[in-house]
Amino acid sequence: MEARFEKEDAASAASEDVVVEQSLAEKEAAYEKFVWDNLKRNYIGNYLHGMLGMTGFRLINAPTFLPAYLHMISGSNTIVGLGLALQQVGSVISPIFGATQIEHRTKVMPAAVWMGGLARVQIVGMALAGWFMAGQPLIVAMMVLMFLFGLFMGTQRVVFGLLMAKVIPLSRRGRLQAWRNATGGLIAAVLAWAAGKYLIQGNVFGNGYATTFALAAFLTSMGLWALQILLREPEPPNLPAQARFRDRVKDFPRLIMSDPGYAWFLVVQMVATASRIATPFYIIYVSSSMSLDGKTLGLLSLAFLGADTLSNLVWGYLGDKTGFRLVLVFSLAAWIAATALLMVNHHPWAIFLAFFGLGAAQSGYMMAAQTMILEFGSRAEMPMRIAISSTAEGIMASLGPLVGGFVADHFGYNIVFGASIGFLVVGLAILLTVVKEPRTARMA
Question: HSE on the CB side for 102, CA within 13 Å?
C-alpha cells in the first residue's frame, strides 16, 4: 500500500513538473511573440536613440574636443590624464549598482530615463562651467563634472544594453547598430567639423567649446526622448530575486568562471581598455608637428567620426553574418596599425589617415564588445555580466589616462603609444588563441 502511494506521489510530482515546464515554455513563447510583434517600433526607437543620443556623446568622448579643452585651460598633460581618469573612475562601481537596481525589474525603461538623464545633466554642466567660470575654479568644476558624467554613464551602459537585448533579436542587433552608428557618426562628423571651424574658431557665445558641449547635450536629450516615447518593453518570464549590492559582488567569481569563454573575453576587454592610455594624447601629440587651430581640430574630428560612419556598416553586417569575434579581431589589428602610423609619419595626410583608422578601430571595438557581452551565458545573468565588463573596463580606463599623463610629461609620447600597442597585441593574441565565438554555442 505504501509503495503504491509513493508511486502516486512521484507521478503527481512529475505531472506538476511538466505543468511548470509547459507554463515556462508558454511564457517564453509569449515573450518572443511580443518582441517580434513590436520589433518595428522598438527598432525605430533604438535607431533614433543611437543616431541622436550617441551623436552627442561622440562629440564629448572623441579624443579631440575635451582633451584639447582641458589642455587649453590647464596647460598640463597630467590634468588632461586626471580628467579622463576621473571620468572612468566614476564608471567603476556604478555599473554594479545599476545592475542590482534593474535585474529584478520587469520594466527597466523608467530607470533608463533617470540614469540617462543624469548623464546628460553633466554635459549641460560642462557648458555652463565654460561660459561662467575661469581659471582654477573652471578646472576643478570640469574634474567634478567628468567624474559624475562617468558615474552615470556606467549605469546607463548596463540599462541600455539590457534594453537592447530585451527588444532586439540576436540576428538584428548588428545591422541596427550599423545603421544607427553610421548615420549618427555622419551627423557627428559633420557637426565636429562645423564645431571646430565655426563654433570654436569663432568663439561663439564667448566660448566655442562650451557651445559645442551644449549642442551635444541637446542631441543626446532628443535621442533619449525618442526612445522613451517609442519603446515597448516585454516582461521577462523569469527574473532573479532582488539582491543586495554586497551579495552580487561576492557572486562575481562564480559568474565569471562558470563560462571560460566569457572569462577570457573579459581579459581581452581589460587589456584593450588599458591601451587607451594613449587616447587623450593623440590630439596633443599632433600639436607638436602641426598647428592645432579650430579648423585642424574640426578636420581631425571629421576623420575620426567619419570613420565611425563608414566602418559601422561593415562592422554591423559582418557581425550579423559571422558573429562579432571577427569584428573584434579586425578592430584590434586596425587600432595597432593606426597608432603605429601616428608615431612614425607626421605628414598631415598620414595624421588624417591615422585618426580615420583610430575612429574605425575604436567604433568596431565598441560594437563588438557591447554585443558579445549579450551573447554569453543566460538572460537572467545578463545585467550583472554587463556590469562586470563595464567595471573591469572602468578600472583599466581610469588608470590608463592618469598613468599616461605622467609618462607623457616625464618620458615622452612615444613611450605612451608604444605601451598602447603592446596592450593591443596581447589582447589580439588572447582573442585569436582562446576566445571562441559565443554566437555559435547560443545558436546551437
Answer: 32
Q: How many CB atoms within 10 Å of residue 229? A: 10
The H or E element containing residue 100 is helix 77-102
Q: How many CB atoms lie within 10 A of CB 118?
A: 16
Tell me the C-alpha distance between 275 and 400, whole Å: 7
Q: How many CB atoms lie within 10 A of CB 421?
A: 17
Q: What is the dihedral of CA 354, 360, 366, 367, to 10 degrees?
A: -170
Cβ-based neighbour number of residue 321 at 10 Å? 10
The whole-angstrom separation of Cα 122 and Cα 87 is 11
Query: Among 114, 190, 418, 189, which Cα is nearest to 285's?
Result: 418
* Rounded Cα gap, residues 393 and 387, in angstroms: 10
Residue-wise pLDDT tens digits, 30-68 = 888 888 888 888 888 888 887 887 777 877 877 677 888
Please report which residue ranges of 133-281 form alpha helices under DSSP H. 135-167, 173-194, 208-230, 245-250, 252-257, 260-274
pLDDT per residue as tens digits for the range 252-285 = 777 777 778 888 888 898 888 888 888 777 877 7
Q: What is the amino acid identity at position 360?
A: A
Give CA–CA dist 84/284, Å, rounded.
Answer: 14
Name the residue among 308, 300, 282, 364 with its Cα closest to residue 187. 308
Please state the pTM of the whole predicted model: 0.66
Determine the residue type at 411. F
CA distance 32 to 180: 24
Contact 239, 106 (CB under 8 A): yes
Give the model's pLDDT for residue 132.
92
Closest CA to 400 of 173, 132, 154, 63: 63
Indicate the helix (H) or strand (E) that contains 348.
Answer: helix 348-373
Distance CA 45, CA 228 (A): 8
Q: What is the mean pLDDT of residues 336-348?
A: 85
Structure confidence at residue 422 (pLDDT): 92
Amino acid letter for position 365: Y
The gap between the terminal CA atoms of the chain, to the nearest Å, is 47
Cell of 122: 553633466
Instruction: State pLDDT tens for residues 384-405.
Output: 777 778 777 877 877 777 777 7
Name the residue among 317, 331, 58, 365 with its Cα closest to residue 178. 317
Compute CA distances 273 → 171, 190, 282, whole Å: 27, 27, 16
Q: How far apart are CA 384 and CA 390, in angstroms?
A: 10
Nearest Cα to 158, choosing from 92, 61, 236, 216? 92
